[in-house]
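User: I'm writing a short report section on ligand binding and want a predicted complex to refer to. Could you take this sequence and magnesium ion and write out the structure as tokens? A short remark afterwards would be nice.
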Amino acid sequence: MSRTADLHADVGEVLLTEDDIRAKTAELGRRITADYAGRPLTLVSVLKGSLPFMADLMRQIDLPLRIDLMEVSSYGGTATETSGLVRIIKDLSASISGEDVLLVEDIIDTGLTLNYLVRYLRGKNPASLRICTLLDKPARRLVDIPVDYRGFEIPDQFVVGYGLDYSERYRNLRFVGVLRPEVYSEAG
Ligand code: IMP
Ligand code: MG
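Assistant: Sure. The structure tokens for the complex follow:
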């Protein structure tokens, strides 16, 4: 049987269990709810990796909420590294001018993708723009990103699950785990 036929077997160490993620998402939701205190909020998330986090986080926020989704892809790079050159595949569907916006991300690695997105969104004149990320890999940061809400700091390892992919797989795992290096070295 090929390795990629068994999603679970391809994952080594489990970094975050379903319970860890659930507890953290609830905590972040409480903080966001308190910080915005009844003000309307627009959550903008970036497909596809942030989809599970966005879906869970929004249900932990008790505010008048609007959501919007963008999708970006990076030119070049590899399956495990971003190039930083970002192309917008799906843009916002409504104006965010004058709105309080919270950008919801799955992971910040080099920060290049987010750096681009923050500049892009600032150009749309929101009243405020903050960043919420489930995972942060500070060891690999190339640009300084002010993170307002951070779920977990993780070591410099390539992780999959709970939205995160390797070659579009593993997004449906309920936990976050370290992909066995054999899986991506075999693929070449
Ligand atoms: P950055 O531009 O280097 O910060 O990378 C951001 C994007 O790269 C994330 O939104 C993910 O799609 C992807 N990425 C970075 N690290 C990982 C990882 O460990 N596993 C899966 N995807 C990752
Ligand atoms: Mg990816």
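A remark for your report: The longest helix spans residues 18-36. Residues 111 and 126 are 21 Å apart (CA to CA).
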